[in-house]
From TrEMBL:
GO terms for biological process: retinoic acid metabolic process; retinol metabolic process. Keywords: Acetylation, Cytoplasm, Metal-binding, NAD, Oxidoreductase, Zinc. The keyword Mitochondrion does not apply. Its cofactor is Zn(2+). It is an enzyme of class 1 (oxidoreductase). It catalyses: a primary alcohol + NAD(+) = an aldehyde + NADH + H(+). Gene3D superfamilies: Medium-chain alcohol dehydrogenases, catalytic domain (3.90.180.10), NAD(P)-binding Rossmann-like Domain (3.40.50.720). InterPro entries: ADH-like_C (IPR013149), ADH-like_N (IPR013154), ADH_Zn_CS (IPR002328), GroES-like_sf (IPR011032), NAD(P)-bd_dom_sf (IPR036291). Residues 3-124 form the Alcohol dehydrogenase-like N-terminal domain. This is alcohol dehydrogenase. Residues 164-283 form the Alcohol dehydrogenase-like C-terminal domain.
Amino acid sequence: MLYTGICRSDEHAVEGILPEMKFPIIIGHEGVGIVESIGEGVTGIKPGDRVIPLIAPQCGKCTVCKDPRGNRCLTFILNRPKGLMSDGTSRFTCKGKQIYHFLFTSTFTEYTVVEENAVTKIDDGATMDSVCLIGCGFSTGYGSALNTAKVHPGSTCVIFGLGGIGLAVAVGCKIAGATRIIGVDINADKFDKAKAFGVSECMNPKDSDKPIAQVLLELTGGGADYVFECIGNIETMTAALNSVTLLMELQFIVGVSAVQSKLSFDPLIMLSGRTLKSSYFGGWKGKDSVPMLVSDCMAKKFDLEKLVTHRLPLEKINEGFDLLRSGKCIRTVLKL
Ligand code: CND
Ligand code: ZN
Ligand code: ZN
């Protein structure tokens, strides 16, 4: 591994709120590296290739892989022991004790082991210390706007949560031609950065006595066209659902909430024709899309560098987590 970003999902893993996780585990899932060696029968990559491990692996053969709509390859998620390779083994040990894998990737380490279908070769010329963000945060947010929501020109978008994922949503909304992008965050320190990403107005729910959904309905004259929840909080998911226009529109859940939490709402609000959708890795199929996203980055269609606020060596990983918890960073990139 060369570099890895720290994503809020890694913090969720540390908190133990993700489903079916087993410890001890090597977390981290937003990385880039160089192939050191390959196993028997591997033909798609070779030693020396620059690669991004995939949280959305692609077997190419299952019904989801063959359908242009989905990106959660069944081979990797069905009938498979959590945290292990497909043969049921782990490739990590520490002092003789088995260590589990995370999200098919495990990037907080100098060396990882991934399956051929959970890694993809990228252009050698990419800037390694920021392209790692294509492994999760950037692609997740950007794809949520472009693939899942299919934001249309002239629309009004609301983004709850102005972290790495939320700002990548803003990049997607802007490219799709949204004219109004409203950012919502309880940390006002995020607002300047958000404006640099095309967010036109920022709001702090703490600044108003009214519920945020009501504030947004008033501000948008009846609701936004698209609302993205990029926090992982049940309350903001419900608020987001109540902030979309009654016409026909959509709300997207990008944030990861704690296992066993339940989202509840009055089904009557769906009678307006509202749609509730979710997005995993921005809807991108890993092997097909990641090399293309890297090329788009090299062609300066978007700037990953702007999302990186801090850089640290692996030994200072806990400082990176402190920066995330205290809301002081957008993305910290670790050098491995
Ligand atoms: P990050 O912590 O960088 O950003 C979250 C932002 O939300 C911060 O700016 C907070 O200040 C803000 N916030 C927190 N609580 C509230 C609140 N109640 N009201 C308003 N704002 C609030 O996190 P991130 O951008 O790395 O990740 C965001 C979520 O996306 C998180 O749940 C993560 O697990 C999830 C995610 C999803 C996917 C996917 O494929 N769907 C992939 N990776 C991460
Ligand atoms: Zn598949
Ligand atoms: Zn992530």
